[in-house]
């Protein structure tokens, strides 16, 4: 038996698994990437002690560690390969505290976002980060990727919802970062540094998160069709400029609506579609103002305060990913541009689609300029033309003042473009900061900016692996 | 002539000052601390080039640099002493861009917070960070200290208002951090790391900040007297728990009101006073609900939507600091505790006042649990009993789950308590991160967590120096 595995078994007993099927399940996430080989072992940590014991053994033996929650990541940051220990937080699911008075919750990292919200709703509270994966993704994973979602323009990203963290360093030491207070400036903001660090700096073993009171009032929901995607994008921009603050504002391009119509067998028009929802006490008033904006830009809109009708509109958006997956293999991209350049980015995507002859279908969180252009292709390997088109798309986003990734992270998927956005000097600085936390480079080597051997992966092997 | 000064003059000409009066002005800030000796020179940088040239010379010659804005800091982070270069950003005052569409502004670091807001208000916009010093403090300084203020419970601290930064490193290299988008997760969040770093990591030379639309509607303002400070604190806590969101909620203890009454010669009651203001379209409705909470806890309140009457109430709060300064030398503290423990912290302060026989007068940003207990004493040196009482107060705040400093920063004032809050391992980690940015330790040595010789200072010498 491998000596590292023997040490893990000795220290952690039944928390350690080397079951081949379990090991294989850690070779992939939701990015479509699959590592070339299975990891060494999985530690299903149930406590901070378990995490510390694992990291001590990893440091002593120089063994790489991939921290993993529910494996719902979209950039390959939590996939593991040969010689690596997977440190799973999925058994650390306790909600340690919910404070209505201080509007916070203290949780273990493996608690599912949806489970935390189910516990909060009974107290009239809400954890606002809402990645599309919230029913299946962990709070620890949300924090490790600084997850976004549909409600960020109004309610912020995960970074805005975390007050404090307990973190186990590469060498097994436990640190307490941040605080329970809403303000605090003692020293450098290491909580913010950990958020979005994708498993490269330390293991998040506990989080103190901000919670909000649930909005009151009846939501008002609008579905609007537009003749061109640029007009729909313009309507979204004008709404924000008018001081309206939708909770949700999703834009689907005509190709997306076409696929959704086919998938649902519904009589949906193959035109650009803007889905807008207002919440809170002013919802109805804001929605009326939004309707005026939409109609002034040629949009054909319906407004409803009826929950069933609203759900029918939202169901169109929810059908987006299943509709694409029914048609082929999907590579989800995640550029984010300044809101005002959303029409220009849509135009650039159309141009890139034509130039490279690839199929791109786009949905955007229009309120914050975050687009998910989805490349759809046949087979299990990403065609060269898709990578070339993706490259052109990233360059277009950067030219417009945007970023490679609004909410999915870098992982292995965007590593090759990192320097284009950050520049050499900043990449070097980031690597040096990583070395402070993890001098021997055992935390998620080969991911994000970190030096070390690239993980050998193939895209689209998932089907083969899980069949 | 000193060779460093000669090099600076050669590279930067008239931007360099060695005028003794100007040099002396950099020995102090608003903390009451004064350095023991004057710095070497001041560079009044007018451009990023000037900053880079200064840092290159500083690195070549191993000369420490203290970055300084308006000198309004309350923790001594920007005071300079013998052998140090002061790098002033006060001439970098351009507002480079205001975008209504993207709700952002791009500014140089020396622009005064109030001047930026004056430029924004014409466009219906607003930069929300509102330290009490906003009429005289710079945006760069607000960012370097992660400044808070009166409106943070509703509108957040400076960290929430910064999208991107240009930073000159110790060696003179220019980095661009963050982006113009509201979302972005490419690599580690170095913008957040810079915010609140108090001049220890780099020189902020440009900032892209979020701006908001100005709130609509007429503000509703409440002034309420309470029999005990604990009851006033409880009313503040219950308001938050009831889902009310005041823009401003200030709590003054009876001793504060007594001094304010004397200072203004006004008929103000020497009882605990809670000042609450709601803004936005629901202001009136929220204020009525707040009145009910206040009265249920025995508060005696008046509510007004009249601007003049509101200003009269706010004038009481504004008179707090002048009233104390008229009575003696003031040491302003800045603990922050979880909101629910605000009554307990007030109780602890009263106990400490009695135990150490010192004069403590307290105002609190009650909405976010941030208290400013002010020690008032005679003469120019802080009496030993005041330091002992401050120590007891910090320990009490930490016991309640709070922090040493909610918004003023560590500087030199709180250095001695840093390990009590962060622990040895985290302080070491923070120092190592600083070394990545500033390997030769020339940026603000002796401040916050940084190693190096402590700056020799005395408290309360300001009067002597400025007379």
Strand and helix layout:
Two copies of one chain form a homodimer.
Chain A: H1 3-12, E1 16-17, H2 20-25, E2 33-35, E3 41-44, H3 48-61, E4 65-68, E5 85-88, E6 95-99, E7 104-107, H4 113-121, E8 125-126, H5 139-144, H6 152-155, E9 162-168, E10 174-178, H7 190-194, E11 203-210, E12 212-213, E13 220-226, H8 229-241, E14 248-252, H9 254-264, E15 272-278, H10 283-296, E16 300-304, H11 307-318, H12 320-325, E17 329-332, H13 342-356, E18 359-365, E19 370-377, H14 384-399, H15 418-437, E20 457-459, H16 462-466
Parallel strand pairs in A: 3-5, 4-5
Antiparallel strand pairs in A: 1-3, 2-20, 6-7, 7-11, 8-12, 9-10, 9-11, 13-15, 13-16, 14-15, 14-18, 17-19, 18-19
State the distance separating the first and last CA atoms of chain A: 29 Å
Domain unit count of chain A? 2
Number of helices of chain A: 16
Shape field of chain A:
globular
Give start-end ranges of low-pLDDT stretches of chain A: 459-467
Q: Which CATH architecture of the largest domain in chain A is right? A: 2-Layer Sandwich
Widest β-sheet, arrangement of strands of chain A: 16-13-15-14-18-19-17
């Amino acid at each position: 038996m491998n000596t590292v595995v023997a040490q893990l078994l000795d220290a952690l007993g039944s928390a350690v698994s080397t079951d081949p099927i379990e090991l294989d399940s850690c070779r992939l996430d939701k990015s479509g990437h699959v590592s070339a080989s299975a990891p060494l072992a999985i530690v299903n940590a149930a406590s901070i002690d378990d995490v510390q014991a694992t990291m001590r053994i990893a440091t002593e033996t120089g063994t790489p560690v991939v921290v993993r929650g529910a494996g719902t990541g979209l950039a390959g940051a939590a996939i593991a390969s040969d010689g690596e220990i997977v440190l799973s937080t999925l058994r650390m699911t306790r909600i340690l505290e919910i404070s209505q008075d201080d509007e916070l919750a203290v949780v273990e990292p493996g608690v599912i976002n949806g489970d935390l919200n189910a516990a909060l709703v009974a107290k009239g509270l809400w954890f606002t980060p809402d990645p599309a994966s919230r029913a299946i993704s962990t709070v620890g994973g949300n924090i490790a990727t600084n997850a976004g979602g549909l409600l960020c323009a109004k309610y912020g990203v995960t970074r805005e919802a975390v007050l404090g963290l307990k973190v186990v360093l590469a060498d097994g030491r436990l640190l307490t970062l941040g605080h329970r207070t809403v303000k605090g400036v003692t020293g450098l903001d290491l909580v913010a540094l950990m958020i979005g660090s994708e498993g490269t700096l330390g293991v998040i073993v506990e989080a103190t998160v901000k919670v909000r009171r649930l909005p009151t009032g009846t939501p008002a929901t609008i579905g609007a069709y537009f003749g061109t995607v640029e007009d729909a994008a313009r309507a979204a921009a004008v709404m924000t400029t008018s001081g309206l603050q939708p909770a949700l504002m999703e834009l689907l391009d005509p190709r997306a609506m076409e696929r959704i119509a086919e998938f649902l067998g519904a009589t949906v028009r193959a035109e650009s579609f803007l889905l807008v929802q207002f919440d809170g006490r002013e919802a109805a008033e804001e929605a009326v103002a939004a309707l005026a904006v939409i109609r002034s830009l040629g949009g054909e809109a319906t407004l409803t305060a009826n929950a069933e009708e609203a759900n029918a509109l939202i169901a169109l958006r929810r059908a987006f990913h299943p509709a694409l997956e029914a048609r082929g293999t999907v590579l989800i991209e995640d550029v984010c541009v300044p809101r005002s350049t959303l029409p220009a980015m849509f135009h650039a995507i159309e141009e890139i689609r034509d130039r490279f002859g690839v199929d791109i279908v786009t949905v955007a969180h229009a309120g914050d300029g975050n687009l998910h252009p989805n490349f759809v292709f046949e087979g299990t390997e990403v065609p060269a033309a898709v990578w070339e088109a993706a490259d052109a798309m990233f360059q277009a986003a950067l030219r417009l003042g945007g970023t490679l990734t609004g909410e999915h992270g870098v992982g292995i998927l965007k590593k090759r473009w990192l320097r284009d956005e950050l520049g050499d000097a900043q990449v070097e600085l980031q690597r040096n900061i990583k070395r402070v936390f993890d001098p021997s480079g055992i935390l998620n080597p080969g991911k994000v900016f970190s030096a070390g051997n690239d993980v050998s992966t193939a895209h689209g092997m998932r089907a083969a692996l899980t069949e």
